[in-house]
Amino acid sequence: MDIALLSVSMNVYSTQRIANEAKNLGHHIECIDHTKCSIKIGGNKPQVLFKNDNILDAFDAIIPRIGTKVTHHGASVVKQFEMNKVFSTAHSANISKARNKAKTLQLLSNRGIPIPKTLFSIDPDDIDQQIDILGGAPLIIKIQEGTHGLGVILAETKKSAKSIIDTFYKMDTNILMQEFIKESNGEDIRAFVVGDKVVASMKRTSDNDEFRSNVHRGGSTSAVILTPKEKSIALNAAKHIGLGVAGVDLIRSKKGPLLIEVNASPGLQGIEAATGINIAKEIIHYVEQSCRKKRK
Ligand SMILES: Nc1ncnc2c1ncn2[C@@H]1O[C@H](COP(=O)(O)OP(=O)(O)O)[C@@H](O)[C@H]1O
Ligand SMILES: [Mg+2]
Question: Distance, CA 266 to ligand 2 centroid (Å)?
């Protein structure tokens, strides 16, 4: 098969791993930097231009690895391939959905997936009540499109929660508020979903004084076995957001597992190292199977 790996650089671990496994399985794979792609529409046939070539008809499948900073343009590139009937491991609209935590939680909660109590608003006249509805402080405040733990704040008192929320509202930054799940103890679970399987899972544990378990915030990783409930939440989350490849993040609470976010371009480095599982190969197998089904 001819596969395009939409990624900004071959120097990224995940990009390299996916490219190597595709080659090992006999495919032709090219790294296409979506930030260097232009979309031409109107007139004759649409084109996706990369280094002056129209690459719209050049591939059987695309694997989007769209970074958080360029989600919008990345999704537009994916959309153009999609409309050209090229298989993609992620639908453009679903990449955008997963990018926003409030949107993700709204959708998945409606599907019966347990999440921490969450509230979002833009009304600065009503902050007291908004905080009270969630049971007061301590309270988690998150930027809706944050990542790597940046933009996730633990407000220990109602007073600090109020000033933080007010600041974000006045800055027109979209946030959400969430009950603080203390018993998660600075740990979260990443379930890596490919197709209709959880292919690997790991636990991330935060550094000493930190409540955020992100590896970018100093968290450490180890393999973990998911409970059947956790597995089913992960599979349903990926299915309902509509992603063939997804990193589903959960925290363990007294009431059971709670979903906190879904990542449409989950990294491979931490989880392949922690579990010893060849996830890149699983992704290529999934692309092969999906393209075979599509041809039938
Ligand atoms: N409601 C919560 N209660 C306790 N800890 C949380 C809560 N939400 C997030 N965290 C911690 O903060 C980390 C970062 O939050 P997350 O929503 O995953 O944002 P990001 O996209 O920046 O990773 C999580 O991995 C988890 O360890
Ligand atoms: Mg996270």
Answer: 10
